[in-house]
Structure formats: structure tokens, C-alpha cells
Amino acid sequence: MPVRDEFRMGAAGAPAEGSDAGPAKDLIDAYMTSRVLSYRRQAKRSFEDAQRLAGKDAGAAEEKAREALDASAKAFWWAEDSPLEERQHQLMHKIGKWKRKQLGCSIFFDGKGYAHRCPVVIAHKKMGFSVGFTATRICSICRKDLASDECPHFRDRSYWIRGGADAYGPCRVCEQDPCKHRADTLYRARVVAIVSAHSNMSLHEVSIVRKPAQPEARLAEVPIDIDELASHLGPNFLPGVRLNCDQCLGKCPGFTEFPGEH
What we know:
By secondary structure, the protein is of the alpha+beta class. It is about 30% helix and about 20% strand.
């Protein structure tokens, strides 16, 4: 029997407002899926725009292709280690291959050295950043300090919550305002930890980890060793010349796995 996710308040069999609604894993998974699909749609729209503009306006086509690569990489990061991952991986390479063939892809040079800034290259480095900090985290359900005795809610549970924004903030079901959730209806909602600008945040450290808690906390670029380039390209290589990136033309080189968490 399917689990019900909403009840009109006062209806027969409706649960009590604020009561436990069971494990939150399905809601957490659904949120991940929604982020993947949202970025995938963005990537495909921008890719279609780039294809339409190619041959008409190279600059505009380049901009749209870059937007498509960025969105496809974000879809991949949100899908990491899930059944959706490989589909996003293939989309990244499809867009990257088209861009390389139609518009070209060059490695970034800042006047001193080279670096990969392509989202496809960065996505193949399975690592990201974890920020260690202390702050007051507010519970999205009761709007109280999540770590205090006043908050009875747990991150792995869901609760029956009235929809819509209230005097304390946006909708507790989706954290949006406005939204589609009704104030006369109870919905299953997961607990979200809210860190506000007034939460006395204190930063302690930033670590490189294999899989960051925030999927988009990734590298901005991957530096390339000049000496290795010179060794590979031969004695006629001069730093500053345009270098093409051909990663998406051939077979995927695979992923660089972060060896440990430091």
C-alpha cells in the first residue's frame, strides 16, 4: 500500500500536526533526484541553444555550451554514487565532444601557468571540499536550535507539517515562498538545518574529501605542471601557446579517486 504524503487537515484519518511521519530517506532521495533532473534540464536547454547558435553567433554558442557543461557537471555531482550517475556522466561527454568539435576547447593560461577549468575535467576528479564550522543550526520544523533540548526533531525522520509560509519564514515543507503547498493541508516533511547570517558562525577548517556533503563544493580548476607539459610536447613548446583539450574526443579516461580524507 503506497504511503500517503499529504492529508487535508481535519479529514478522516488525518495525523496530528507535528507528529512523526516515518523515516525521511525517501524524501532525502527525492530531493537529490529533483536537483539532478533540474540541472539536467538546464544542461539540455543550454545545449540546444548552443547547437542552434553554432554557425550564426560563435560567441553566444560558446556561452551556452559552457552553461550546458556547467549544469551537466552539477547534475553529475548530485547524482554521484546513485543509479542516476552514469546517465549524467554520458551527458557531460556528449556536450563536451560536441563543443570540442564545433567550437574548440582550449586549456586556460593565466600568463604563468596552465590549468583545466572545464567542468568535465573537474568532474572526473572525485573530490571536493568539506567546511568545518560551528554555528547555530535552526530546525526547519519548529524553528528552534536543532541541537537544543527545545527541538524534539531528528534529521532521519519526517513529520506532518502544515504547508505554506508563516510568520517565521518560508514553507517548512519545501523552504520556498511562494510555493504550491496549502496552509490547510499536512505534508510529510524532512528536517532541514538552517544556518542564517545571524547564527554566530565560526570557521575552523576546510578539508579535501572524497565526496563533499554539499555536492557542488568542488575544485575551481586543476593546475597542469609546466615541466610535464614540456616533457610531453617536446623542445619546441613555449609556455603561453594555445593548447587544445581533447579529453571528450576519445574514450573516457576514467576517474581520479581521492585516496583518503585529510
